[in-house]
Amino acid sequence: MASILTLRLCPSTSYPRLISPNVIQLRRAELGFDWCQLNCTSENRRAKKFVICALSEGDSDNHDKVLKSVKDKVFVNTRNAVVKFQESVSSVPHIFVTKRISTSYIAVGICIATMFLVIVMRVFTARNSRPSRPGSVADLVRRGQLRSDRRGISSTLKYEDPFNNPMVKISKTNSTVEMCGKVYRLAPVTLTREQQNVHIKRRSRAYQWKRPTIFLKEGDAVPPDVDPDTIRWIPANHPFATTVSDIDEDLAQTNVYQKHGVPFRIKAEHEALQRKLETLQNDQKFSKLTIDPGTARNFERPFKTQLKLDDQVEEKLSNGPSRHTQSDHTRNSLGSNTNTEDIQHT
Amino acid sequence: MTSLLTHSNPISYFPNSSPTLSKSPFFTHTKTLKPFKHKSLTVNSILQYNRKPELAGDTPRVVVITSGKGGVGKTTTTANIGLSLARLGFSVVAIDADVGLRNLDLLLGLESRVNYTVVEVLNGDCRLDQALVRDKRFSNFELLCISKPRSKLPIGFGGKALVWLVDALKDREEGCPDFILIDCPAGIDAGFITAITPANEAVLVTTPDITALRDADRVIGLLECDGIRDIKMMVNRVRTDMIKGEDMMSVLDVQEMLGLALLGVIPEDSEVIRSTNRGFPLVLNKPPTLAGLAFEQAAWRLVEQDSMKAVMVEEEPKKRGFFSFFGG
Question: What residues does the CobQ/CobB/MinD/ParA nucleotide binding domain cover (chain B) (predicted)?
Fold first, then answer.
């Protein structure tokens, strides 16, 4: 009997949260036995199996006793579990929850499906409307390979009138204007020429000012025949202005007006460098005339004859010091010869 | 909160004492619409443009962009107006006269190409044409920096150096530039005096707050004392939502306080910061942004020596059609 009931009730126990207490009461009335005992048949069955397995090796007398005690224990354990289950079942408000959840699942499913569709559509339209396909001229411009204003095949720049274009629309009554999708109410400007003149007079009374024409550093003497009002005093530590200039006014003006050729300072620096070079060269000539042949020897390039001479010197040194002076003499004479040759070449 | 146009006669700024919207429609620009009938402009349209603003005044037009207060958007304005003008086909030389704190090269994305400055030109280290940095996007736009960040400008010559520069630019072989824009440093120090010297017109950039307005009024006074009469105002970083909540002065309030003709109104736009970081001016953005469009409109007015006749005061909820639910 218990096994049949277990089989019957198993589907219902698999959804414990969805069953209302009313249903439980109904079932209890129908079946005519205690729900609590039956509900925990799975645990009972497991315990029974365990006990049977454990007693299969033991005596048959003790079998009934042990079984009875185990049954009692299992009953106590399952009772707690049943209470818990009943509590959880009673916390569920209504049986119609099942229906509600199913409809919400459908709604969520529809939402996800629509979202997916929208994303697919957007990606598709974006891919189609993309102006610069890879490798196109527009793409080259975007990547900075080509200058946009030099594109021969691009469409010409067609200027849109700022007062009459799709973004700016005026109403027929001239009372509103629509700009960038927003409608604004218009009000006429009421300022008259007379009002403007009144303001000009007011300001001329309020602000007496002469534009400074001379900039002087603090501490400089005021030049004669200069209106003190037109002097602007520049502090020595002014962050960006200075009265000090290393070029005079005429020269600065000529520099501004220069259209062609090398700029003044570049030219001046070049000339100065050239002059310096020339003077250096002249100095070198002069100094080379009085150059010490001993020091000049250090700058000579080694060549074969000299190498041979060096070998000879080494040999002579190995033979004896008496001939050393002669070899030195020859080397010096050679050195002096090369020096004179250099001077001639220059 | 951007600007709108404009009037038919650019010489007389206010033909009527109380200009009405019906009399001066915002986007009908008679000077520019007229040539539509001409054949020459039709050819231009085929070549490059739908239409082109007509340049008013003698060239080169030396415009100083100043403010008094720092951080109101002088350099941003210079970069965007300059490139807008170049885009319209005018040759432009932008001079960064902010001696100590130059930034225009960064905004234009040309910082790596600045090798020589005006200081080197004055000293004779290079010629003027070598110091001019040509923009690769628009070859009719050139940048000239006045000095390197760490060097000191010899201002013993006063503003004469900039006058010489303007004269030298006039006599160039390529031809005289249409516009010379001078980005003025903040304050009224030596840099300001140097920057305003060669200018014959000025654009005053301000934000709708009292600190900027006080400085702006002072600077306008100095400019007027110096003999610059053609001064126009650009109100930057305008927020219509704050104006609606009466937390910010409206553009009309600002105009009432300063009494200047409006060249443009630039709305607060996060794209400005983004474009600054990228070194890619706002006016080149595709699709155009609100602030970018406002800069372009301001550049258009600058070319035609024009001023705004109506301003956008507040945002209205957009009326939606029947099919708007379906994306229509």
Answer: 63-279
